[in-house]
Structures are given as structure tokens and as C-alpha cells.
Q: What sequence folds into this?
């Protein structure tokens, strides 16, 4: 397939990509969160001379990439979609009804009974679902709100980490206010499949070269454990087929399973990007890889997305 990296001295490959100091941190903890991928995607946009009027993220999840690009002025507007009613409701309320969300969140009782109650019935209104999403996300193991997930600390609460250890009201409230400050540049938040989100984005009437897409679909491996709405092989193939025909700029991130690599081997520009996840093993943080596919011509030379502990200490 050839090497599509921007030319840069080899030693630069070892330097971590820059991270913006004015971070817009998502209020949600999300499996496989892409926060550390931001520098790579931002640099890709710069290298290709893009200035999207609309940046569309049809698998919103934690929405870290879109919101940081918007905050940094690399895109003019953002459109978010997600098939999960809890996730879509959260973003609608966090962006457009944030004062209610902050007050309601601060007054919640953080107990196993509350966790069990919201797991069984997150509510029917957008507000109810938004609040349930935030509560469950901050009290469930690794932020997973899929049916098989358990509470932090387990149902017996015998772990050193209890159910409320990630329920930092001041920090989360601050992050919600940061998100809400961007609301005037959010075109829409859509509760829908990725296909419907693309249709809604196209209906806005932008030209093809004014729109860029970022796709972060469910992982191929272990998806049923991580997501309420996960993909089967036919779903992965349907997304692939749609991207082949998509004429606007797009970037896709995946877990690098052999099946997905094979599916995209003849389409786009394929790269493995080293990524450090916030998934812990007994020996600390686990090193993982991310598969990047795009129809853009230029990709960054640097693929290292993190600093070691000693590098952070010596900044």
C-alpha cells in the first residue's frame, strides 16, 4: 500500500504528538476512549489543509475528538449521533440543558440501590435518560453501561474502590460547563443509527468538501461486553461499503483485528497507530494499537500518542 506519512526525520517518530493544554475533557468515561488519539487526528486535519464547516461524529460515545476540535477552532461546527438512547440523551442535555443536569447530578444518592434502580429503568424522558447515563457511567466498571457491566467495587463493595470513587461532582460539573460553552456551534445531536446521522448531516446542505467525518464504530472484538448496541459482521461490512462511496473527507478508527484489517486492506490509507488505553492490567496501563483508515492523502509521521511517567515528571 505504500507509506503515506508526511516526511519527517526518523527521530521524530519517537516524540509524542502534542496535546492541547486547554483540554475539553468529556464528562463520560468511555470504553476505548479516543482522547489520546486527538493529537493524531488534529495533525491529520492540518496536514491535509482541511477547514471543515461541519465535522460529523456518527458514533458519538464520549465525543472527545469532536468537542476538542471545535474548541481549538479546527472545525466550525459539529454534528453528533448515537444509537444508544442514554448516550444521545446525555449529550442533548449536557449541551442544551446543562444547569438542570449539574444540579440534579449533585443531588443524587450514590448507592447500590440507586445503581440497580437505574439499570432496570433509566426513565423515558430525555432528562431522565441523560441523568441515568451520567450516573451509571460514573459508577460502573470502566464506565461501561452495557447490560453485562457491574458497579465499581462489585455488588459486595469489598474492593478498595467503592461505587462513588469516580463520582467527583465538582470535576464533572466543570466538564459539563465546558461542553455547554460550545453549544452554539453544535448543529445537532441525533438519536439514530450512523446511517440516519449521515442522512441528517447531508440534509443540512453543506458541500461535500465542507464536511468531514470521524467514525469510531464499536470494536470488532469483545463488543458485546462493551456496548449496548454493538455490531455483527454484517454491520461492519455495511459501514465499510458506505465509506467506499463517501466523497467527503473521513477518518475511521478501529481495534486492529485481522478481520477488520482484511476488510479495509484495499480501501483508504491504512495505518496502525500506537495508543495507550486506560485499561489496567496487573502490571499497570496496557499498551494497545489503533487502526486508522482514511481517504485523506497525508498522515502524520509521528504515531506515538503518549508520554511515559518519567517524561511527565521531567516536563
A:
Amino acid at each position: 500500500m505504500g507509506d503515506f506519512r508526511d516526511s519527517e526525520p526518523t527521530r521524530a517518530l519517537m516524540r509524542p504528538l502534542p496535546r492541547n493544554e486547554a483540554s475539553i475533557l468529556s464528562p463520560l468515561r468511555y470504553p476505548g476512549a479516543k482522547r489520546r488519539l486527538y493529537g493524531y487526528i488534529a495533525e491529520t486535519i492540518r496536514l491535509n489543509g482541511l477547514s471543515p464547516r461541519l465535522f460529523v461524529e456518527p458514533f458519538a460515545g464520549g465525543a472527545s475528538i469532536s468537542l476538542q476540535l471545535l474548541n481549538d477552532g479546527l472545525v466550525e461546527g459539529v454534528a453528533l449521533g448515537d444509537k444508544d438512547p442514554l448516550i444521545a440523551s446525555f449529550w442533548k442535555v449536557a449541551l442544551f440543558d446543562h444547569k438542570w443536569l449539574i444540579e440534579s447530578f449533585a443531588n443524587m444518592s450514590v448507592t447500590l440501590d440507586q445503581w440497580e434502580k437505574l439499570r432496570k429503568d433509566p426513565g423515558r424522558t430525555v432528562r431522565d435518560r441523560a441523568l441515568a447515563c451520567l450516573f451509571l457511567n460514573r459508577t460502573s466498571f470502566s464506565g461501561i453501561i452495557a447490560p453485562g457491566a457491574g458497579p465499581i467495587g462489585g455488588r459486595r463493595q469489598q474492593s478498595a474502590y467503592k461505587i462513588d470513587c469516580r463520582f467527583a461532582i465538582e470535576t464533572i460539573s466543570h466538564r459539563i460547563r465546558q461542553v455547554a460553552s460550545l453549544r452554539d456551534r453544535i448543529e445537532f445531536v441525533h438519536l439514530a443509527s450512523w446511517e440516519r446521522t449521515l442522512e441528517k448531516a447531508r440534509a443540512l446542505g453543506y458541500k461535500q468538501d465542507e464536511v468531514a467525518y470521524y467514525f469510531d464504530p464499536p470494536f470488532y472484538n469483545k463488543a458485546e461486553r462493551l456496548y449496548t448496541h454493538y455490531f455483527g459482521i454484517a454491520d461492519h461490512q455495511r459501514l465499510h461499503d458506505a465509506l467506499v462511496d463517501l466523497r467527503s473527507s473521513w477518518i475511521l478508527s478501529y481495534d486492529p483485528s485481522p478481520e477488520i484489517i482484511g476488510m479495509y486492506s484495499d480501501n483508504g490509507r491504512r495505518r496502525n497507530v500506537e495508543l495507550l488505553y486506560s485499561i489496567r492490567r496487573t502490571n499497570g496501563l496496557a499498551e494497545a494499537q489503533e487502526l486508522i483508515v482514511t481517504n485523506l492523502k497525508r498522515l502524520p509521521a509521528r504515531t506515538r500518542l503518549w508520554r511515559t511517567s518519567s517524561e511527565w515528571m521531567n516536563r
Q: What stands out?
A: The chain has one domain: 10-313. Confidence is low (pLDDT under 50) at residues 1-19, 276-285, 308-315. Residues 27 and 174 are 9 Å apart (CA to CA).
